[in-house]
Design goal:
This protein is mainly α. The protein is built from 11 helices and 3 strands; from the N terminus they run αααααααβαβααβα. The radius of gyration is 33 Å and the shape is elongated.
C-alpha cells in the first residue's frame, strides 16, 4: 500500500490570496470611485426632476432627501402634456397603441393590498379604436414576438398575447352600426380575430338601431298614401321624414339579418336616441337595453 503525497499549490495559500487581493485593491477602488462619480450626478438629476420648477435654481437636489414631501411629478406632467413631445411620441409607429394594450393588461394584474388579496377590478374594458386601427393594435404583441423572440420586451409581449388569446379572460366585443359599410368592417374584423389574431369573440353590439314604428303598419301604408301630397308643406316634410326613417329601418333589418349569418355571433341591439348629447337619461336607457339583452355567450 502506497501513501499519496499531496503538494499544496502555493497560489491557494491564504497569504497568496491576500497578496493578490491587495494587488487588485487599488484598481477596484479606482473603478468604484468612477462608478460613484457617474451614479451621484445621475441620482442627483433624477431628484432634481422631482423638485418644483421654482426650487431647481435655488436649492440643491439633496433638499429632496431632507424634505421628501417637496417631491412632485409636475415636471413630468408638463413634459408629456407638451404639444411637441406628444407629437413626437405619436409619430413613433404603434407606440401609443402598445402603451394602451400594456395599460389594459396591467389593470388585469392589479391586486388589493389588504390581507385578503383579490383583484382590484372584476372587469377591465379597453375601448379600442376603429376596426382598421384595432386590427393593427392587436397585431403588435405577435409582431414584437416575431421580431424580438427573447428579452424583456418579448416577455411583456408574450404576456399580452397570452391574455388576448385566453377565452377564459378575454373577449373581443365588436361595436357597429346597422349600415352596410360598418357591417362590412365588422365581418372583416371578426374574420381577422378568428384567423390571424386568434382572439376569442364576444357578441356584436349594434348601436343606433332605428325604431320599427315607421316600417310597421298602419304607419307604413299611411306614408305611401300621403307621399303624393304637395300642397301642404308641413305635411309633406313630415311624410318625407317618416319615409326616411322607414328606409333606414328596412336597411337596418337587412344588415341585422346579414350579421346573424356572418359573423354569426350573438347580436345585442341598442336603440337610436334622438339626442345630440348623452345625459343621465340617455345613458340609463342604453344601460337598460344592455342589461335586458341575453348574457354574453362563450367566446367564439
Amino acid at each position: 500500500m502506497e501513501a499519496a503525497t499531496v503538494i499544496a499549490n502555493p497560489d491557494d495559500r491564504p497569504a497568496a490570496r491576500i497578496a493578490r487581493f491587495a494587488a487588485r485593491l487599488p484598481m477596484q477602488i479606482v473603478m468604484a470611485a468612477i462608478a460613484l462619480l457617474w451614479l451621484v450626478p445621475t441620482f442627483g438629476l433624477l431628484l432634481t426632476s422631482l423638485m418644483p420648477a421654482g426650487s431647481i435654481s435655488q436649492e440643491g437636489w439633496w433638499k429632496v432627501v431632507q424634505t421628501p414631501s417637496m417631491a412632485t411629478l409636475d415636471n413630468y406632467r408638463a413634459l408629456f402634456d407638451n404639444r411637441v413631445v406628444r407629437g413626437f411620441l405619436s409619430a413613433i409607429p404603434g407606440l401609443d397603441a402598445y402603451a394602451m394594450l400594456g395599460k389594459a393588461w396591467w389593470h388585469t394584474t392589479e391586486e388589493t393590498k389588504s390581507s385578503a388579496r383579490r383583484w382590484v377590478y372584476d372587469l377591465v374594458i379597453l375601448d379600442g379604436p376603429a376596426s382598421g386601427h384595432a386590427t393593427a393594435m392587436l397585431k403588435i404583441p405577435r409582431a414584437i414576438l416575431d421580431a424580438v423572440p427573447a428579452g424583456p420586451l418579448a416577455r411583456d409581449a408574450r404576456t399580452m398575447s397570452e391574455l388576448l388569446s385566453d377565452a377564459t379572460r378575454t373577449a373581443l366585443v365588436i361595436v357597429t352600426r346597422p349600415e352596410e359599410l360598418p357591417a362590412g368592417e365588422t365581418v372583416e374584423l371578426a374574420a381577422t380575430a378568428r384567423g390571424a389574431l386568434k382572439i376569442p369573440l364576444g357578441p356584436v353590439i349594434v348601436n343606433a338601431v332605428p325604431p320599427s314604428r315607421a316600417a310597421g303598419e298602419p304607419l307604413s301604408s299611411a306614408v305611401d298614401r300621403l307621399r303624393g301630397i304637395t300642397d301642404d308643406e308641413r305635411l309633406a316634410r313630415t311624410v318625407a321624414l317618416a319615409a326616411g326613417q322607414r328606409a333606414q329601418r328596412r336597411t337596418a333589418e337587412a344588415v341585422l339579418a346579414a350579421l346573424e349569418k356572418d359573423p354569426g355571433l350573438p347580436l345585442v341591439t341598442l336603440p337610436w336616441l334622438p339626442s345630440t348629447a348623452l345625459g343621465p337619461a340617455e345613458i340609463d336607457r342604453l344601460a337598460s337595453a344592455l342589461a335586458a339583452s341575453p348574457d354574453i355567450a362563450a367566446p367564439a
